[in-house]
Amino acid sequence: MADRDKGPHKVTSFDVARVAGVSRAAVSRAFTPDASVSPKTREKVFQAAKDLGYRVNYLARSLTNKRSDLVGVVAAGLDNPFRTLQIENLARVLIARNFRPILLPTSQEADTSTVIGQLLHYAVSGVIVTSDAPPTEICEQCAAEGVPIVLINKGNDIPFVDRIISDDRMAGYLAAAHLIDSGARKLAVMAAPAISYTARRRSEAFIARCKQLDVEAQLLQVRINDYKSGYDAAANLASSGIDGLFCANDYMACGVVDRVMQGRSRDDAAPLSIIGHDDIPQASWTAYDLTTIRQPCDLQAEQTVDLLMSRMAEPDLTARVEFTPVTLIRRRTA
């Protein structure tokens, strides 16, 4: 009765070592990626762990090693389908490389110190900061703690902090050239350049290319690069005479398409050619069939984790920047 009151026995690495007939150190090496242990010993340890129901406590291990296998992924704008796609790909690559992603949602208005505290308390091995998340203070504090960082689609040039940037210049050029080739002559780009590095770069490249091709182009500035901003801003497009529009992302472009399509038959000739950016899953839906610029999340994730791991191995490397190529995807809207 007394034994029953104590509850079930918690399986430890000592139990695994006893059943496998190896030392506790061998058990630790078997569960450590790239550690020196024979295949036979690893197999014996894994089988014993499976039979006993043993799971490695990675948080406890981090207290011993002063660094965990956790990688913090700091992200904002989680309502945007592209962010979901981006985080999914990052998580998949991190797990394949024997890391464990921990998501920390934030925003432009959030208390950055809270995010920093969470990252450092978990003794993360590295940090990935996506676009729209505030990076500067996070980078400074994590760098002071010796935590490697990679920024995605952010303009901040910070010593020892690497960046992955989508080729926004090419995106703007591709969108302008395609709209002009499609017959549009009064063009615009819709973006919130004040808060988004990528929106600013894409809109600048688009307008510059239009100018080179001697075609009129203007910036339709919105507050946020989201669906509602696109939907609301599209109310004035019909009276503006604009016949070609490049949206800084697909999320906003979907809002534009929905507003433009209101009150019209889908068989009507579209008076406005629209191009988005990102190629989110919704872009290919029949309701949108959106021409867009694809930003390959799978390749971007591989590039990001490659940089992060090399930074872990050599913390004093000069800050590096790599570009992710983009591709025009032609659909019905342009």
Protein model, in words:
The chain is α/β, with parallel strands linked by helices and 334 residues long. It contains 14 helices and twelve strands. The protein has helices spanning 2-5, 13-20, 24-30, 39-52, 58-65, 81-96, 112-121, 136-144, 168-181, 197-212, 227-233, 237-240, 250-261, 297-313, and strands spanning 70-75, 100-105, 126-129, 149-152, 162-166, 186-191, 216-221, 244-247, 273-278, 291-294, 321-324, 327-329. The strands form two sheets. A six-stranded parallel beta sheet has the order 2-1-3-4-5-11, with helices on both faces. The protein has a six-stranded mixed beta sheet with strand order 7-6-8-9-10-12, with helices on both faces. α6 links the parallel β1 (70-75) and β2. α3 (24-30) crosses α4 (39-52) and α9 (168-181) packs across α10. The longest helix has 17 residues, at 297-313. The model is unreliable at 1-5 (pLDDT under 50). Residues 11-65 form the HTH lacI-type domain. This is LacI family DNA-binding transcriptional regulator.
Give the end-to-end Cα distance, rounded to a whole number of Å: 75 Å
Low-pLDDT regions: 1-5
Q: Output the radius of gyration.
A: 25 Å
Number of distinct beta strands: 12
What string gives the helices and strands in order?
HHHHHEHEHEHEEHEHEHHEHEEHEE
**Overall helicity:** 40-55%
**Into which percentage range does the β-strand content fall?**
15-25%
Q: Overall mean pLDDT score?
A: 87
Count of helical regions: 14
Q: Major β-sheet, in short?
A: 6 strands, parallel
SS-based class: alpha/beta
Q: Give the strand order of the largest sheet, numbering strands 1, 2, ... along the chain.
A: 2-1-3-4-5-11
Global outline: elongated
